[in-house]
Each structure stands twice: as C-alpha cells, then as structure tokens.
Amino acid sequence: MKICVLSKQYNPGGGGSERYASALSAALADRGHEVDVFALGELDVLSTQHKQTDVEISFLNNRIRQLVVFETVYYSILASQSTDFAQYDIIHGTLMPASPIAVAPTLSETPLVLTSHGTSIDEVKSHKLEVPTDYLKKLFFHPVNVLMDIITIPQADRTIAISSDAAKRLKQWYPVTDEKLACVPHGVDITKFHPHQDRHPAPTQDNCSILHVGRLVSRKHIDLVLHALSQIQRSDIELLIAGTGTHRDRLEDLVNKLNIATNVTFLGFVPEDELPSLYASSDMFAFCSRYEGFGLTFLEAMASGTPVIGTPVGGFPDLVTDGESGIIVDRDPTDMARAIDTLASSPALLEEMSTKAREVAESRTWDTVAAETETVYESVITNS
Fold first, then answer.
1. Among 173, 172, 196, 170, which Cα is nearest to 183's?
2. Do 98 and 241 fall within a single domain?
3. Stretch 337-353: mean pLDDT, rounded?
4. Residue 320, domain extent
5. CA distance 35 to 18
6. What is the pLDDT of residue 145?
7. How large is the average pLDDT for residues 232-243?
8. Separation CA 350–CA 354 (nearest Å)
9. Rounded Cα–Cα distance for residues 314 and 195 (Å)
C-alpha cells in the first residue's frame, strides 16, 4: 500500500503520540509499504537527525508550541495545500485531536483512518487546577480540542483506539459507532528496551529504586506516589522522577512538606539514549496517572524487565495481570504504599514479575502493531 501519515508531532524521541507515529511508520515500511509522513518540527534538527530508512518524512514548517490548538489548524492547512492525497491508498492521521482537522473534508475518495490517543473531554476532566497553566489547558485548549474532535471523527472511515479504555471513552463521548472503531494497543521496541543494559548512575545500588517517567503535569498525578512514599517506614526506598513540566515547583514543595526529600530525586530531562538503562536499572516503575489513552512508559518499563505498579487507566489493565506482570492499585496512597512495600520486601517476587513483564512486552512489538493496523487499512479499503 501507499500510505500517507499525517502527524502534526513527529519525533522518535518525543512523547507517546510522536513515538507512535515514528515507530508505526517504520514498522509499516519494514513490512513493504510505501510510507510518506507529513509533520511539523524543528526543521534544522529533525530533518537531519531523524531520517528513517524507507520512510519519506516531510517537515512542512517549524512547530508553534505555545499556540498548540492553533498549531493544529495551521498544520492541517499546510498539509492540505502541499499533499496530493489522491495518490495514496490510505491516509492515517495519527494524532487526535486529529491532525487532519482541516484536511478531512477535502480528502476526495481516499479513505481516512484516525488514531485516538485519548479524548479531549477526558483531558478536561482529568486536569486539576493546581498551577496557572492548568487554567489555560482546562478552560481553553482542551475544550477547543473537543470541538475539533467532534468535527473530525465523522470524517473518518475508521478510528483506532489505543486501549480498550480509550475505545469505551470514545463511544461514550463522541459520535463513533462500533463498526467504525478498532482497538490496536501500542507496541514497544524490545531491542531498544530490554533488561540487559549497562547500569545507569541515577539509581542507588543499595536502595530499592522506584522510577517515574513523564511530564510533570496535573493528569500524571505524581502526588500519588509521593504521598505513598511518605507512608512507608523504610529508609532504603528512593523515588526517581524523570521529566520536566509546569508542576515541578509544586511537586518539590510537596516533597519538602511530606519530609521525604532525602528519598526523592528530580532527574529533570533524561536524554532518549539514557532511558533504556534508567528503566532497566530501576527496581520498579510507578504509573500514577488519573487518565491516559495508553501510557507508553509503563510498557517500556515492562520491556526493560522492570515490574510496574499502576492505576487502572489507559492500556495498563489491558496488558498488566494484577499480581503476575505487575500490580494494579486504586488511586489511593495507602494502596500504592502497600504495593511498593510488597515488592520491596520480596526480591523473589520482583524477579518473577520482571520475567513476566518482559514476556508481555515481547508480545507487543511494533511489527505486531503494524500487522494489526494493516488489517484495519484493508478493511477500510475493501469497504470504500
């Protein structure tokens, strides 16, 4: 097939939706398809550093990160003006609020598939008003995205949800039917993320290290693991927080208030090439989110052989069997504390969960995701 990928954000070292677009495009190309990607990005960096064999990437212009909602419409107009959609067998918008918001009505007869990484309504609901930027996201950016979702979804021949939870929420909030909905969970690069890495210097070898990777924003709910840590009467447990975001100052204040500063380290931005060893060198991974479409970091941790403790959102309950490949907890600090203490007290259980977590990850390679996505494409083309 000749596939057009529309992804406003495209960077193999970026967030979950960007990793998805990059990894899926490469996997589809590896399976023999012709893949063209149209995106926004830092032209002087991405165009030279993120070339992929067998994937043609066109960066249409630089990103406008401060005006994220308007950037979506701007990107869509650029894509519609610069792309001959009629030459493709399928068009895949890999980000929802979907990148082809302004493109969809002009796609002629070329079938359109969208990937929903979550719903904007749930983004609104999950954001707490804790720092000034939360007000802008909750009261303006995400509500505008809701409108773009509602405009775009009816234009799609099929919408891919990245977890069963995401599929349920799509049907709950948006005009999408079972016939036009497919569920294809995320994948992970098991050759990049694996247990046998050089040791990362951040985790202390004599301590039990808990890792959190993600943006420091409201819906990631890092407060949950901080409050849990304050309840555990052990000095040999440390929490490593990798990532940047608008909530760092607030979280550092909370750490001091809870008197756990000696047990918590804010690592800040961790370069992409360090993440595999950081995952593999940590003893467990905390997934605390109030809401996720999937939550790719927990799957990267599992691929690294690191047991995961997390809330039942996004893809976590799809891939984690409670008590076997990880532990599912309520959104309650006491429950999180109990799970951490259980694993910290049992090296044998940690080892057993490590093995099973890796086995789960090996079943969700990007080639598997590409094969399942192919099936969606074929169904759409057949029925068009």
1. 170
2. no
3. 96
4. 208-362
5. 16
6. 79
7. 94
8. 6
9. 24
Do 287 and 175 reside in the same domain of the chain?
no
Residues 32, 181, single domain; the answer is yes
Residue 60, CB-side half-sphere exposure with 13 Å CA sphere: 24
Strand order in the sheet with 112-116: 55-61, 34-40, 2-9, 90-93, 112-116, 158-161, 181-183
Residues 6+ apart with CB under 8 A from 102: 73, 76, 77, 80
Average pLDDT of the chain to the nearest whole number: 89
Residue owning tokens 């076997």 = 324
What pLDDT sits at residue 125? Answer: 66
3-class secondary-structure state, position 207:
coil
Task: Please check the confidence at residue 112 and state whether its pLDDT lies above 70.
Answer: yes
User: Distance between CA 156 and CA 177 in Å, rounded?
Assistant: 11
Number of structural domains in the chain: 2
* List of residues 6+ apart from 136 with CB closer than 8 A: none
Element (H, E) at 60: strand 55-61
DSSP output for 280-333: HHSSEEEE--S--S--HHHHHHHHTT--EEE-S-TTHHHH--BTTTEEE--S-H
